[in-house]
Amino acid sequence: MQELSALFAEFILHILVSYKHPVVIPVPGKKRNLRKRGWDQIQLIANILNQHSVKVYPLLKSAGRHKDQKKLNKVERSRNAMGGFALNLYIVDILRADGLLSDNACQFILIDDIKTTGSTLKAAAAILNGLGVNHIHAISIAMD
Q1: What is the pTM of this model?
Q2: Distance between CA 131 and CA 92 in Å, rounded?
């Protein structure tokens, strides 16, 4: 999986050069999936991006127990995704201290593994909007 993560990270690096001030926010996976697989593909990619001096901030954390999105229809996915994330307050403090939350030149890029209906990305973007972030983009590794 590390070889694939490196390949995807390289792809993302090529996309990020088109942004002036990218701030990468990995979308966290479910903890039970991490326990089951033993790895988190988005975290592996985030680690590689960090090694290339990309600003990666684990701002979001998984909150609560939600159903697996792939088993739900579009309406159920949207309902299930809302409230699925919480803020890592320590990272909020870092973003504020670095002036990134108030810098309109910064472009926040959510990175997720699979996009089906976009419900997960919309839920994550809503949290960023709540922090006053205006420039939100998303990159997903695959679409279903």
Answers
A1: 0.83
A2: 9
